[in-house]
Every structure is written in structure tokens, then in C-alpha cells.
Design brief:
D-Maltodextrin-Binding Protein, domain 2; 11 strands; 48% helix
Amino acid sequence: MKKLFAGALTACLAVGLTVATADAAKREKFGVDERHKIAKRVKFETSQDKIKWKMVMPWSKGLLFYDMAVHFADSVRLASAGRLDIKPFSAGELVPGNQSFDAVSKGSVQIAHASPLYWKGKNEAFVAFGSVPFGLDAEGYNIWLQEKGGMEQLNALYKPFGIVSLAAGQTGQEMGLFSNKKATTMADFKGMRLRTPGWYMDIMTNLGASVSPLPGGEVYLALERGVIDAAEYSVPAINYPMGFDDITKYVIQPGVHQPGFQCDVMINEKAWSELPEDLQWIVKLAAAETQAWSYNWINALNAQALLKFKEKVEIVKMDKDTLIEFRKVAKTYLDEVKAKNPDVKTALDSQEAFIQEYSVWREARSGATPWPYETYISGQITE
């Protein structure tokens, strides 16, 4: 009897498995790595050329952004065994930092490391590829640029200027405002004198603040002398050496102005086309490695820096109603920019469509934030 039952069970399982296999066979493989087709049959040989490039940037030595640029150049040199040697020049060493774009476009140098955010004057849409207030975070930029057509859009913006772009540095969410005024509500920001650039500058102006996009090197003195009440400049690990905590009392969180900050390498199109194909692949892979490494490296340092900040300044959080109101004001402003600039509309519409699509997974996975045990059981289960 047992043998008969076991035989029947085996037969049922076999039928069920056959049906399941047949159903699965109707579905296509979920996701394809298109590069595999190229890598399967390599059609080029290792080049013997030794090539030297010059790389400029808007970053000064001492900033982690400079280290990111150097890391990329080091990766290329290592992977190519020195066949492609990219020499980095900090801001002002070869050209002023704000002329990096033009230097690459004209072919004065072969490559630059920067952020699309800085080229607002060339095309307003470049800002969308650097950071957007209440926009994409690091995870969002990584997916949107790589999988949802973001890099193709960015390269279409660079094309008229003879530039090829590769994503090469993501720092994640920036720190909020170092301030001598405690601001947690919308009314608190009215009349404040702030330092912030880009679209957030316009948004804060619309809220009644007095805003100036001071260069990073001028922020400390402006805060110290009371010329401004508050300022933001990048992530904790970059802020800490700048010493803002010595001259301010508060940090107003979160950094809604830049949920993610994206950098890239800009390559002169002619120099790129003349580069042997094996070296082109090395540059591409070095850029991708820098994109991943920079986020991990800087965010590990951010946690250490924040602990040091807490020794001197009070970390305050904007309340929920203020954040919601900020989000509304930001959307109104961005909709106005989109209406005036078709390229901005293309970029932001694409990002917003991705945010909507991806929200189902964000919601489904929420509640598993890896907080310390006591934090989680106290009821704080989401980030």
C-alpha cells in the first residue's frame, strides 16, 4: 500500500512539474546583459600604443572629489599597465575649474572629471544629471543612468559640444545646512541668508530666503563673519575638514537639496574616437568601478564624520509638515523650469517616470531597515 501511495505521489509530482515547466517555458528570461554579446567574441587585439592624457577638474586638492578623479585615473593606469596614463590637474593648475568644460570641448585637454550640475550655463538640463531637489538618490541615479536611458540622454546633451560622458562618481545624499539659526519649520527660513547653488537656490529664494552661490573656498569666512547665516556644501566627509562645526551651532537635516550627487568624466570626442578599442573598454570599466567605489568609500567616511560633528553641533531635523511643503514648492518650481526648457522636461519626465515605476519595490521592501536592535524594536523600522 505504501509503495502504491508513493508511486501515485511521484506521478502527481511529475505531472505538476511538467505543467509548471511548460508554463515557465512560455516566459522569456527576465533581464538580459546586452554586453555579453560583445564580450563573447572579442574582435580587437591588445594595443601597444602608450598614450598620455591630461585631466582637468573643478576640484581643489584636499577635497574627496579630487581623490575620486585621481582614483579613476589610477584605475585606468593600473588596468592598462600604464599604456594609458591620465595625469590629473586640480582646479587652477592647468585651467580655472569653471573652464573644464570648454577645455575638453575645444580639445585643449582630453578629459575632465566634474559634475553635470556645473554646466547649467551650457544647457539648463545638465543640472538634472547632477542633482535634483527631492529627486533621485544614489540608488536611483545608478539605475536610471545605467538601465533607464539616463546616460544616453546625458550624452545627447554633450554631443553638440564634442564631448563623450561616462558616469564616474556618486557621493549619495548631501548634508543639510550648517547654521547659526535653528530652523525646523517653513517660517524659520524666511529672511535667512544662505549659501546653496543650482535649482535649490531658486527654490529657497521663492521661500523668502536671501541666497548666494558662494564658491566652496569662501563659505567658511562668510559664515565666520556673519555674512551668511547658513550654508551647505556636500557630504559630511567633505564638510568635516572644512571646519564648519567650529563656527556654527546647528546642522539642519535632511539634505533635501541633493538626495544624490552625480559626477562624470567628460572626454573629448576626437580623443575618444582615436583611442584603441581595448583602452576604450578599460576607460569604461574604470569609470564604472569609480562610480561604485566612490559611494561606498565616502559613505563609510560620512558615518565617522557625523560622529565628530555631533561633538560640537546639534543635529536638528525639519518637521514632516515642513518637508512636505518644501516638496510642493520644489515641484512647482521644477514644473516651471520644465515648461521653459524642453531638454529639462525630457530629463525630469524620464526621472519621474522611473521614480513612479520603482516606488512599488521601495514600498514592498520597506520595514527591513538595518537599524541597531534597540532602535528597531522601539518602533523605528523604516529609514
